[in-house]
């Protein structure tokens, strides 16, 4: 089964890891607008994209996860200007400087560490997230948007950028498109705000599954109820045919609710708010089996 996963951060990484364990053919379309931390420092120095979430996605899709994570996530300490920088981000930047291509740098790194998925940037050129507050103030940058006390009236990219054609092709060829989990405003929305991504999502007939966070996220997105999120996305991006939602207790497909088995609910609930890999493997297996009943079984025969 061809699965496309959209988003960024730890949520995307967990979903990618789970789908790879299930043997799906996976493509990640990763947000590149982060302006905080190591990624933000590199962007300020001239990097075209935020490498951090791309690095996390690559690590999540390797079979040798622990060793690769330790090597690529190491942060330099007491080393002058390198202090706080992450090994994997610097390696991706080095490969970009050698090749002149963001996508090629990611592909080379993926081959080096044995990535089992295709990891793609939402765009290959600099772009930042902008928000218009309820009183009309323009707020620039993800770190500032995350600090807003309430949901913005409008969200946009600061310039029109194109997605790589590989992203569009992956969406067209997908059997299932997973959106989330993760930060709604700063991990999910940057990708969905891309006009060509929107167009591809609107024209494909594949199932589009929104995966909710287990618990309320911090920041402005905590001001809206989970049941309102898909409608909020639609109000900003238009109707993209999101026809399935997975939450802690329910799978919703074409407005029909399937209550998750009690044993699975307890696994998903866990003791924290993170989507643990084992929980997601169980949940996505259930999703796949349910979709088999709802749609053409041939599309989901791997499960």
Comma- or semicolon-separated keywords:
CofD, Rossmann fold, LPPG:FO 2-phospho-L-lactate transferase activity, CofD-like_dom_sf, 13 helices, 11 strands, 43% helix, Uridine diphosphate-N-acetylglucosamine-binding protein YvcK, single chain, alpha/beta, 303 residues
Query: In angstroms, what separates the terminal alpha carbons?
Result: 9 Å
Low-confidence sequence ranges: 269-275
> What string, H for helix and E for strand, traces the elements in order?
EHEHHHHHEEEHEHEHHEHEEEHH
What name is given to the CATH topology? Rossmann fold
Report the major sheet: 8 strands, mixed
Q: Whole-number radius of gyration? A: 18 Å
The number of distinct helices, counting runs of at least 4 residues, comes to 13
Helix content: 40-55%
Question: Can you describe what's shown?
Answer:
The chain is an alpha/beta fold and 303 residues long. It has one domain: Rossmann fold, CATH 3.40.50.10680. The protein contains 13 helices and 11 strands. Strands 3-2-1-7-8-9-10-11 form an 8-stranded mixed sheet, with helices on both faces. Strand 9 and strand 10 form a beta hairpin. Helix 1 runs parallel beside helix 3 and helix 8 packs parallel to helix 10. It starts with a strand and ends in a 9-residue tail after the last helix. 44% of the residues are buried. This is Uridine diphosphate-N-acetylglucosamine-binding protein YvcK. Pfam families: CofD (PF01933). Keywords: Cytoplasm. It comes from Alteromonas sediminis.
């Amino acid at each position: 089964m061809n699965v496309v996963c959209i988003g960024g951060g730890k949520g995307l990484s967990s979903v990618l890891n789970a789908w790879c364990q299930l043997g799906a053919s996976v493509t990640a379309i990763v947000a590149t607008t982060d302006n905080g931390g190591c990624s933000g420092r590199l962007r300020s120095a001239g990097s075209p994209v935020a490498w951090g979430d791309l690095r996390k996605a690559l690590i999540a899709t390797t079979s040798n996860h622990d060793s690769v994570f330790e090597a690529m996530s190491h942060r330099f300490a007491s080393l002058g200007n390198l202090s706080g920088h992450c090994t994997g981000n610097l390696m991706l930047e080095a490969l970009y400087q050698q090749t002149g291509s963001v996508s090629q740098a990611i592909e080379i790194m993926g081959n080096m560490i044995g990535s089992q998925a295709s990891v793609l940037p939402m765009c290959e050129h600099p772009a930042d997230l902008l928000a218009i507050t309820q009183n009309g103030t323009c707020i620039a940058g993800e770190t500032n948007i995350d600090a807003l006390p309430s949901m913005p009236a409008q969200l946009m990219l600061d310039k029109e950028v194109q997605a790589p054609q590989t992203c569009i092709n992956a969406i067209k060829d997908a059997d299932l498109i997973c959106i989330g989990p993760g930060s709604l405003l700063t991990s999910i929305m940057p990708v969905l705000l891309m006009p060509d991504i929107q167009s591809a999502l609107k024209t494909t007939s594949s199932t589009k599954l929104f995966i909710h966070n287990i618990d309320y996220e911090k920041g402005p997105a905590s001001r809206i109820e989970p049941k309102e999120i898909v409608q909020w996305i639609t109000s900003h991006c238009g109707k993209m045919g999101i026809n399935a939602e997975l939450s802690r207790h329910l799978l919703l497909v074409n407005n029909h609710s399937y209550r998750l088995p009690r044993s699975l609910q307890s696994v998903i609930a866990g003791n924290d708010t993170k989507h643990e890999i084992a929980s997601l493997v169980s949940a996505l297996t259930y999703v796949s089996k349910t979709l088999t009943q709802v749609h053409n079984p041939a599309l989901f025969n791997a499960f």
